[in-house]
Amino acid sequence: MRKKLASDSIITAAHQAAKNHNISDVCHALKIPRSTFYKNSICHVSNQEKRRKRFKKLIKEIYFASGRRYGAPKIAKKLQHCGEKVSEKFIGNLMHELGLCSIIRKKYTWHPKKQKIEERENIIDRDFSTKSINQKWATDITYIHTLHDGWLYLSSILDLHTKKIISWNLSLNMTNELVLKTLNRAIIKYKPSNLIVHTDLGSQYTSNEFESRLKELKIKHSFSHKGCPYDNAGIESFHATLKKEDVYPQKDKYKDFKSARIQLFKYIEGFYNSRRIHGALNFITPNEAERRALSGSI
User: Fold this and answer.
1) Does the residue 124 lie in any domain?
2) What does the DSSP assignment read for 218-260?
3) Residues 88-117 pLDDT 10s
4) pTM for the full model?
5) Would you call 148 exposed, middle or buried from its count of C-beta atoms within 10 A (0-12, 13-18, 19+)?
6) pLDDT at residue 211 above 70?
7) Could you tell me the residue range of the domain that residue 22 belongs to?
8) 139 — phi, psi (to 5°)?
9) Burial of 87 (0-12, 13-18, 19+ CB in 10 A)
10) Based on the domain organization, do 207 and 223 belong to the same domain?
11) Which of 76, 184, 213, 288 suits 197 as a labelling partner, its CA being 20 to 30 A distant?
12) What's the CA gap between 243 and 154, in Å, rounded?
């Protein structure tokens, strides 16, 4: 390692002399390495630095377009899909330099009280594979806390083929009407046949009203085993993602029922279904997966 770095005056003199002389000769005469000359050159920018600058701009565009939710893995995938040759590690390093990181937070885990629940038939039995849309739907209720209205209840239905939230409904009360309204919206929109709907053993899904509606529609009802959230992993995963990516980081936007419903619409319809790429879908969006399914592409 050199004991003493070249002074600013010597570097400046080198740059002036280089305008009329060969750079190698100038560096030799002033006894400075060419690397020092280039490093301190105000007019020279290396190709590597140009590349890093370009990707930093692209990273910021994707990061803020995702609502600051995407981390290095998804940003790298987005860039790779655009034909860019980048690694997740490279993107992670640039994000660190930019001071950017995903806003998602660890989800809150609700622990229900122990109660005796009758086991029902698990038709799906963790076989989430499908060949097209409207073959297997997963549905569940999750809790969302607001400052003024306390706990709200979100009922969602997810198509296991496209990972799309095809119907959702928010309520101040966790009632049978909540899940029936969510189901009916999906039925009206998609008009499925030979469908299996998978739920947990919650009282809303084992109610006579819900069971009767499924029988009327000739829909098979599959149930998770008691205390096994992995049996309904698809919808459980969505609710966890929703909370980590939107509810917890943006608590100030979940003040009451009205503001929560607006924010959920923005996240589910404006981001999750239409813009959020999904690893299980080979990094395309649920809406794109549905479009391809309807056209016969997947």
Assistant:
1) no
2) T-EEEEPPTT-GGGGHHHHHHHHHHIIIIITTTGGG-SSHHHH
3) 999 999 998 888 888 876 555 555 555 555
4) 0.68
5) exposed
6) yes
7) 8-39
8) -140, 150
9) exposed
10) yes
11) 288
12) 11
